[in-house]
Amino acid sequence: MRGAYDLHVHTWPDHDRRSVSDLELLEDAERLGMAGVLIKNHYEPTTGRAALAGRVHTGQAQIYGSIALNWSVGGVNPYAVESAARMGAKMVWLPTREAEASIRLAGLGDYRPRPPLRVAGSDGKPLPALLEVLEVARDYNLPVSTGHITLEESFAVCRAGLALGVQMVLSHPEYDHTPVPVSSQQEFAQMGVLIEKDWVDIALGMATVESVADSIRAVGPQRIYLATDRGQASGERPAEGMLLFVSGLLRCGISPEEIHTMIQENPRKVLRI
Predict the structure, then answer these.
(1) Which of 5, 68, 94, 222 could form a disulfide with 147 if both were Cys (CB 3.0 to 4.6 A apart)?
(2) Are 70 and 39 in contact (CB under 8 A)?
């Protein structure tokens, strides 16, 4: 765990109850000797919070902010992305809880009904606003994650982003709102997309450690990084989740060297450090 990163964590303050605050997450990471964590909120940029927590924290672990493109920031909004980038964001998430696929499966509205967000048209081509977002991401050297969009949209936007030189990330392919078969994960990896595997999907019974280990062998650890997507009040704290994830994969035959690639080397590629 020394030198590891967790690039997908939900912390308090948030609309939902969370198991840790920004500072508590940093303190947990510090105790394990982790290098850094990235905080995510579905409805507001976390860049300012990350900057403040990083200023207060006296240890070595770093904290990074991000932005998710849901309606509270104007949807697929290049202006919001540029603002977040200027504040130090390290990840852009395409629509999550307000993506069409998420609304179809989870219903309308955490606190207000809203129309679903799409990033590609019925013709399969990325929408103009999405292309502007990708251009901003390119200009600021920011990775872009697929969030909760559909598989078809993911292929379209990843092709468009890669063509512009943007590092694209396929997020939690085991999550039941955004399932991606291993054969498609292999296609994304061959295109040059990095794939984020999240502990929460195992913790909530959407996948097993064994099935995730098998998918890592099929795709190749050089195209994967591990994260937790933890912070839910009902679950273990994110740092504990990462420990469980790593120990489980080791028991399944994933080597320490492969783990090192997925929790240190590849996250550094995402962060551009």
Answers:
(1) 94
(2) no
pTM: 0.96
Can you give the pLDDT at residue 113? 76
Give the whole-angstrom CA distance, residue 167 versus residue 266: 12
DSSP 92: E
What pLDDT score was predicted for residue 109? 57
Could you tell me the pLDDT band of residue 114, with boundaries at 50, 70 and 90? confident
**Vertex 114: Cα angle to 110 and 118 (nearest 5):** 110
Instruction: Specify the DSSP element, H or E, that contains 211.
Output: helix 209-219
Task: Name 169's Cβ contacts closer than 8 Å, sequence gap at least 6.
Answer: 91, 143, 144, 145, 146, 193, 194, 195, 196, 270
Question: 239-242: long-range contacts (C-beta < 8 A, 24 or more apart)?
Answer: 239/6, 239/25, 239/28, 239/29, 239/31, 239/32, 239/34, 240/28, 241/199, 241/200, 241/203, 242/1, 242/4, 242/6, 242/32, 242/34, 242/199
252: left (phi over 0), alpha (psi -120 to 50) or beta: alpha
